[in-house]
User: Fold this.
Amino acid sequence: MGVMLQTFYWDCPREEGKEFQWWNYICHEIPGLAKAGFTCLWLPPVHKAANLAGPSMGYDPYDYYDLGEFDQKGTVPTWFGTRHELDELIANAHRYHITVLADMVLNHNSGADAQEVNPINGQSRWTLFNPKSGRFPRNWESFHPSMYESWDEMAFGDMPDLSHRNPYVYAELLKLVRWLIEEVGFDGFRYDFVKGYGANTITAIQEYRYMRDGKSFIPYGVAEFWDNAHAIEIWVDLANFSNSNPVDAFDFPLREMLKALCDQYGFSLRNLAAWETVLQKQPGTTVTFVENHDIRDEGRPIVNDKLLAYSYILTHEGYPCVFWKDYFNYNLALRDTPNGIDALVAAHETYAAGATQILYLDDSLYIMQRTGYDGKPGLIYVLNNRGDSWQGQWVTTQWTNASFRPVAWWSKTDRSRPDDQSTGPDGRGQFYAPPRGYVVYALV
Assistant:
């Protein structure tokens, strides 16, 4: 499936002194990311935003067709750069066989040019949009409440919500995604705040028969439906019921489990099997992650031993997504060592495939095997939550008379190389992990 990288965090251009230069920054890092094994880049929203209180991250869309070309909302480039620089980024990613996702904010708009009175409720709102691109102009009829639907799934802040059942809006959104894929060159989408509108919009975008360079093209899609596992599963089933190109969803409950693993004293590893996650039920349509741009308020980010969480998502099923700030700013990549995200990405891309089978589990020790599939031989993963000593256990694996070597490992107190291990004719062998750490074992 590959490994995704979220290429931004909140206010990243300002935080790093790269305002209007973020596309160039990402583009410069692409060769190293490709070498590490990343296969997909998720970009922040690329369109011109309202910028009401200064440069914006783009989750307040104004002109969907202004990717940094038109002088409006106080600037020609977006906060991330110009259209030309975005084109260069996408082209460079494709040169390195990395796909690129656009962050699609389809629920709401902001920064309208004038107020209008909505005759349905008599309220005055900012709903008249005359973007300089000249494409997808909007008035009150494009927003809730509209003549086409009385029910708005969920509002976002005080921004007017697009009425997707308005045939004009629906058609314009499909034109937009077609343009982004067929002309701009995006390979798929991350769908923001899908709680705010009907799943049929996502189904239509995923199902559209795109053509690029004279060939049929099928985009990838992943949705942000921030809720419990059961609610996410219901939404995924609804979106994919009549969809030949299924959309994935981020596993927010799994992320909360990983935070508990890292930050809660005395966390029992038995929770790894018992916690209700999307990954348990729908591993084939699940994107796993450790942090994202929205998890930034005090007390919400993981603060302890975050590599334990990354070791989990990069060895288990699902489509793992790495957070830019963790990889670069917090130096969890640990390039050219077996102790960081880079080693885990390499293990994922080389070995992690097939079903996940738990071989041993108690409160402080977890051992599982990936069975292998399609050229990837599988792996053994050991997680030790005891902070004062190495731990191991005899387990019965699927491999007989096999030799294993550690390919990725980490501990907060002991980073010495774990010993090679082997199994006998019955598949049994002992596998260990260091204190409060993990080891990924692979076949020699």
User: Anything to note?
Assistant: Residues 167-184 form the longest helix (18 residues). The chain has two domains: 4-250, 356-443.
